[in-house]
Predict the 3D structure of the following.
Amino acid sequence: MNELNLDEFKGIIFDLDGVIYDITEAIKKAVDDGIEKYKMKVSLDEVMEEIAHLIEDIQNYPVPEIILNSYNLLDIKFLERLSFLKKLRIGIYLFTQFNKYKDAESKLFKEIDKLISNLSKKKLKLAILTNNKSSYAEDVLTKFNLTKFFDPIIGFNDVSKVKPDPEGIIKILEIWKIKPSQAIFIGDMTTDIDAGKAAGVRMICVSSGLAKKEILLQHEPDILVNNTQELIKIFNI
C-alpha cells in the first residue's frame, strides 16, 4: 500500500459518518428490525448503502417535511415494488429505529481521533463535509472533543447542492485559498468519490461497511482502503 507524501498537501477534508463516526451497527440493527417487522426479502449487504443514504437524507428534515418530500426520498431500489404508504411507513420506522440505537451503538472508528490530532500537528488544514446538518456534525465532534481540529464544518444547510455535487468541497477550498491539487477528501460512499473526483482533489475512500467494496471500486477512487487502520498507514504519522 502506497504512502502519501503529506508535504504535497495543505488540507484534508473528512466526511463524518463512515469515516470518523461509526454508525454501522446502528444502521444494521435498524435494518434487521425493519426486515423482521415488514417481512422484507432483502439482503442486509445489498441495502446498507441505500439505507445509509436514506437515513442521512431523512435526518435533514422534520417529520412533516419527511412526509412532504417522501415521494423523492423513498425512490430507492429495495422499496420499488411497494405501495407509497408502505414505503413511507418503512422509511419512518427505519429512521426511528436508527435513532433508538444511534447513541448506544455508534462510536469513533479505532484511532481516528489520534490520526486527526497528528494531522493537525503537521499544520494541515482540516475540515468536515457532510450531507448531514452541520449542527449534527458539531454535536458528534464535541462529544469526542474533536471540534477544535476542524474549520470549516460544512453540512447540507451550508450549500445549495449536496454530494455527489462538488460544491461543498469547492467552498472549503475557497475558504482555505488552496488549489484542488493541494487537498485530500476522505469519504466512504459512492457520492463521496464522485464529489471528490468532480472537485479535482485526491480522493481516498474508506470501505467501512456502508457501501459494498466492489461498487466503490467501480467509481474509481484514487485510493481505497478497507478500514481506518489502513488509512492511518497511508499517512504514516
About this structure: The chain has a mean pLDDT of 92. The CA atoms of residues 79 and 86 lie 9 Å apart. The radius of gyration is 18 Å. The chain has eleven helices and eight strands.
